[in-house]
C-alpha cells in the first residue's frame, strides 16, 4: 500500500490560501465605478506578457526537472493542451525505498492580460509561508511565494510564480540527498519554461 505523499496536502493548502488571498484582495480593495474610470498606468500597459507556447509535451518539462525526479515515474494523467500544462511525477507502484516516497509537479496556466497579481500576504503570514525575493520576478511585475511543510531534511514545498501572462505552480521539496526543489529553484525552473511574447 502506497504511503500518501504530503505534497498533495501542501498544494491544497497553498491553493486555499491563494484563493482566499485573491478573494480578500478583490473584496477589500476599492474599485473604480462608472463615474470614476481607472486608467491603466503606462507601466502596467507596457509590461511584457509571458507565454508557455513553446512547451508542447511533458517530456520537455521532464528534461527541466530531471535533477528532482530521479526514482519517480510520470503520472498517467500528464497533459499539455490549449488550457495549460499539467505534468507530475510520483512514487512508482511497489516502491519500497523511502527516498522515493515523494512527488514533483509543474503546472502552467494562462493569465488574462489585465489580470492582477495574487496577494501573497496570507501565505507570508502562515507557518512555512515565504514570499520569494527574485529580481527577475519583480522586474517583470510578478510575485512568487511558497508554502513548505516538513523539516530541513524532508519537506514538501508548493510554489506559485505569477508573471503577466502565466501563473505557474510547482510542487517539490527537500528529501534526503536530492537537490531541493524549493522556492528559488522553482522560480528558476519556471523562468526556463516560459518566454516573453
Describe this structure in words.
The structure is a single chain. The chain is α+β, with helices and mostly antiparallel strands. The chain has six helices and ten strands; from the N terminus they run H-H-E-H-E-E-E-E-H-E-H-E-E-E-H-E. The longest helix has 22 residues, at 7-28. The model is unreliable at 1-44 (pLDDT under 50).
Present the secondary structure layout.
Layout: H1 7-28, H2 42-45, E1 50-51, H3 58-65, E2 72-74, E3 79-81, E4 84-91, E5 104-110, H4 121-125, E6 129-131, H5 135-139, E7 143-150, E8 154-163, E9 166-175, H6 183-193, E10 195-196
Antiparallel strand pairs: 1-10, 2-4, 3-4, 4-5, 5-9, 6-7, 7-8, 8-9
Radius of gyration: 18 Å
Biggest beta-sheet profile:
8 strands, antiparallel
Helix/strand order, N-terminal first: HHEHEEEEHEHEEEHE
Shape: globular
| Uncertain residue ranges | 1-44
The separation of the N and C termini measures 46 Å
What fraction strand?
A: 25-35%
Label the structural class: alpha+beta
- Global mean pLDDT: 80
Number of strands: 10
Q: Helix coverage percent of residues?
A: 25-40%
Describe the structure in brief.
The protein is 28% helix and 28% strand.
Q: What key attributes describe this structure?
A:
6 helices, alpha+beta, single chain, 197 residues, disordered N terminus, 10 strands, two-stranded antiparallel sheet, 8-stranded antiparallel beta sheet
Amino acid at each position: 500500500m502506497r504511503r500518501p505523499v504530503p505534497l498533495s496536502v501542501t498544494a491544497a493548502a497553498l491553493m486555499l490560501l491563494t484563493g482566499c488571498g485573491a478573494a480578500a484582495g478583490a473584496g477589500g480593495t476599492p474599485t473604480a465605478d462608472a463615474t470614476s474610470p481607472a486608467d491603466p498606468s503606462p507601466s502596467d500597459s507596457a509590461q511584457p506578457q509571458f507565454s508557455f507556447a513553446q512547451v508542447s509535451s511533458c517530456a520537455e518539462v521532464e528534461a527541466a526537472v530531471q535533477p528532482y525526479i530521479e526514482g519517480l515515474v510520470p503520472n498517467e494523467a500528464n497533459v499539455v493542451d490549449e488550457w495549460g500544462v499539467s505534468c507530475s511525477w510520483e512514487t512508482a507502484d511497489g516502491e519500497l525505498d523511502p527516498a522515493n516516497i515523494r512527488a514533483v509537479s509543474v503546472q502552467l496556466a494562462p493569465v488574462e492580460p489585465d489580470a492582477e497579481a495574487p496577494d501573497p500576504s496570507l501565505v507570508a503570514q502562515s507557518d512555512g509561508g515565504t514570499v520569494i525575493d527574485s529580481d527577475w520576478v519583480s522586474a517583470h511585475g510578478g510575485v512568487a511565494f511558497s508554502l513548505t511543510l516538513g523539516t530541513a531534511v524532508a519537506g514538501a514545498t508548493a510554489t506559485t510564480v505569477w508573471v503577466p501572462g502565466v501563473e505557474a505552480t510547482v510542487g517539490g521539496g527537500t528529501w534526503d540527498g536530492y537537490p531541493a526543489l524549493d522556492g528559488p529553484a522553482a522560480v528558476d525552473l519556471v523562468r526556463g519554461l516560459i518566454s516573453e511574447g
